[in-house]
Design a protein that fits this description.
This protein is about 40% helix and about 15% strand. It has helices at about 15-25, 45, 80-85, 90-110, 145-165, 190-200, 220-230, 250-260, 285-290, 300-315, 325-329; strands at about 5-10, 30-35, 55-60, 70-75, 115-120, 170-175, 180, 205, 215, 215-220, 240, 245-250, 265-270. Residues about 320-329 have low confidence and may be disordered. The chain binds nicotinamide-adenine-dinucleotide (NAD).
Length: about 325
């Protein structure tokens, strides 16, 4: 075992993906600094790590510079769901762009490796299917999703310019839909929405006719991809798609959730939001080759773990629907 642990920063470390990544890094023996402004992150997400001498949580907004010593930076800070990133779109773009500049500046000063949590949204509403990393995307720069999509695209540009101009040691991961315990219960993302509605016995809302497809990666698989990407040689920068290529229609996902929760919920249909992509599926050939990585957790298993999490959360908060038998008495 090394005498000195690697010092790693996770921005957005109190969020859904960030908190799982912090746990994984602690298990790997790293010294972890979680940096978060708690806009969508929650202290509950990191509660189990508080008290670990190798874990430190810092309230900080990455649109302001940060001066610490560090070996690796995972830059995850940014609201990720449309409800949250459209709440204050200017701040969303600032977090992506100014946040990237600040974290790249820190990487430049310390010589740290830096990994950007980019997104499949850089492909916009894709006309190429599945999307590989050479596809340049079809993004509407003026619509309500642009603060996120264009912010992430600009962050990628900054990463590659810092590499060309300052020899920064960069890695860019383009994340596709990921789900698991600690997703925010009210963020409107399809997996958490369906599960919470099913557990509460409410109608399950499907936008459009439900034939639009998505591909869902379980959080542990994604986090493993992050760590493998960070550990690649400096010449390897990405961008690299990380996600699960198993594509299903959103209506089929709703059926899975109803079956696994044993819910009595009905499916109701609503109008599709503006610029919602019809299809989303990663081509992960490059990640398979470069990282020897691919998702391992089957959808039903990942859904069961996620359902168990939301079930506990709703039971504790008193928001769980009564089962039909109990309700009848
Ligand atoms: N979950 C997914 O399916 C998915 C898909 C594509 C990309 N991503 C990217 O992964 C990253 C993490 O996503 P997530 O799903 O965990 O979302 P999340 O909202 O749970 O986590 C984001 C975290 O960043 C923090 N944050 C936001 N603005 C900040 C700021 N200015 N300074 C400091 N902290 C700030 C939030 O408080 C939160 O803890 C995001 O960058 C997101 O764009 C996620």
């Amino acid at each position: 075992m090394a005498l000195i642990s690697k010092r790693v920063i996770v921005t957005g470390g109190a969020g859904f993906l960030g908190s799982h990544l912090c746990e994984r890094l602690l298990r790997d023996g790293c010294d972890v600094l979680c940096v978060d402004n708690y806009f969508t992150g929650r202290k509950d997400n990191i509660a189990s790590m508080i008290g670990d001498s190798r874990f430190e949580a810092m309230r900080h907004d990455i649109t302001f510079p940060l001066y610490v010593e560090v070996d690796e930076i995972y830059n995850l800070a940014c609201p990720a769901s449309p409800i949250h990133y459209q709440y204050d779109p200017v701040q969303t773009t600032k977090t992506s762009v100014i946040g990237a500049i600040n974290m790249l500046g820190l990487a430049k000063r310390t010589g740290a490796k830096i990994l950007q949590a980019s997104t499949s949204e850089v492909y916009g509403d894709p006309v190429v299917h599945p999307q590989d990393e050479d596809y340049r995307g079809n993004v509407n720069p003026l619509g309500p999703r642009a603060c996120y999509d264009e912010g992430k695209r600009c962050a990628e540009t900054l990463f590659f310019d810092y590499r060309r101009q300052h020899a920064a040691r960069i890695k860019v991961a383009r994340i596709f839909n990921t789900y698991g315990p600690r997703m925010h219960p009210n963020d409107g993302r399809v997996v958490s929405n369906f599960i919470v509605q099913a557990l509460r016995g409410e109608d399950i809302t499907l936008f459009g006719d439900g034939s639009q497809t998505r591909a869902f990666c379980y959080v542990d698989d994604l986090v493993d991809g992050f760590v493998r990407l960070m550990n690649t040689a400096d010449e390897f920068t990405g961008p690299l798609n990380l996600g699960n290529p198993h594509e299903i229609a959103v209506s089929e996902l709703a059926q899975h959730v109803i079956r696994l929760t044993g819910s009595q919920s009905r499916i109701v249909y609503r109008e599709l939001p503006q610029d919602d992509p019809r299809q989303r599926c990663p081509d992960i050939s490059r990640a398979r080759k470069a990282l020897g990585w691919e998702p391992r957790v089957p959808l039903d298993e990942g859904l069961m773990r996620t359902i168990a999490y939301f079930d506990r959360m709703l039971t504790l908060s008193g928001g769980r629907a009564k089962s039909p038998e109990t309700a009848a008495t």
